[in-house]
């Protein structure tokens, strides 16, 4: 476990390190206060240019099971789709500063996901695109309804899959060898859940 200071209130908050082999994952369930988190959810809900993108699968064009948006300095290819960057918004720069301060890393882009209901999801993947470099640091913020975040090792079947509840106002940080060895997903849920906004800050090269 290590400690950091938030910029706003100089309050010491802890990022908990998960005990996962072949990974470096940290989690802070209440990185933001409830008041801040409610305000960020509203702001992002209203200001982000949310898009319904499609994926091509088996020659079919299918709607992605969530809305997405891409902001920052660089374009990015994700799930075979090229995402042209939209210029930073003030709210995104504020969040970027906060996660940079906490993680000691810098980011030049952010992918946003909007999960409208428990029927929205993200399939098993790792964020291992070449543009992200060898051992990418990815800082993931969650606002709104709680969803389960699953992690499973690519090859070691003796390791049980891990599941974390991504709370309103939480920060999840993945770095080091994590993307090489582990896959992650957001499964659908039958539980009634509030809409959820996720932001993953990344550093894209090139
Ligand atoms: O919604 C989440 O927490 C996961 C997002 C994610 O894995 C991604 O955008 O690559
Ligand atoms: Fe991911």
TrEMBL record:
Give a single Pfam family match.
2OG-FeII_Oxy_2
Q: Which GO terms describe its biological process?
A: DNA alkylation repair
Going by the UniProt record, its keywords in alphabetical order are: Dioxygenase, DNA damage, DNA repair, Iron, Magnesium, Metal-binding, Oxidoreductase
Q: What PROSITE patterns does the record tag this protein with?
A: FE2OG_OXY
- Residues that coordinate or bind 2-oxoglutarate: 113, 115, 125, 184, 196, 200, 202
Any one GO MF term held by the record is: cytosine C-5 DNA demethylase activity
Q: Required cofactors, per record?
A: Fe(2+)
Instruction: Give the signal sequence positions.
Output: none
The residues the record assigns to binding substrate are 58-60, 76-78, 128
Residue ranges of domain Fe2OG dioxygenase in the record: 106-205
Q: What is this protein called?
A: Alpha-ketoglutarate-dependent dioxygenase AlkB
Q: What is the lineage of its organism?
A: Bacteria, Pseudomonadati, Bacteroidota, Cytophagia, Cytophagales
